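Entry 14. Ran structure prediction on the chain below.
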Amino acid sequence: MASLAAEIVAFLLAISGWVLVSSTLPTDYWKVSSIDGSVITTATFWANLWKTCVTDSTGVSNCKDFPSMLALDGYIQACRGLMIAAVSLGFFGSIFALVGMKCTKVGGSDQTKAKVACLAGMIFILSGLCSMTGCSLYANRITSEFFDPTFIAQKYELGAALFIGWAGASLCIIGGTIFCFSIAGNSKSPRMGYTYNGATSVMSSKTKIHNSAADFKSPKGPPKHFDKNAYV
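Output, structure tokens:
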């Protein structure tokens, strides 16, 4: 029962993390322009993996998609690949998790379902690591430019999408770890034991049947005693 509850908790954590990781791809604010040292701010620059935008003081935004994928910086291409891989792995992990959970009626025996659940946990862990690596790579580029005194272009700060991605990656890793440990609980389940009493020969079985028949025919009442004058 405890293993079943652990699998349900792991599934909820992993699915929640996968949803958060998936939501980071269309999120706009991966990085936001810094106002450090600025007295008057007339525009706010922000960007994500697909476009860069500017919002003026009136609230009007103008966005520009990245014109060429091959002309992008290497870290943006790497982050795109890692985040797409994280979403794809989370999708397949959720399918394997549904098959391997004890509360479902598909997947075969308990031992087979435990192995499938462990496989789902490993996939969720890989998904979390991909998301964690992609967000960390993007954040490392932002922080390195921000603290570089020789960098004179527009500096940015960490956006909300990075924190959402880190949270989702953590949930995926925690849920996947619980799924992997669920196989240990299934392997320790007790098994039925059978006692071997040995083979019975034909002669011994006939002897038992003969003795039981004799006992059945023998009178159960007290013996009768006759006197010598009984026949007179």
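DSSP finds five helices and five strands in the chain. Will compare against last week's run tomorrow.
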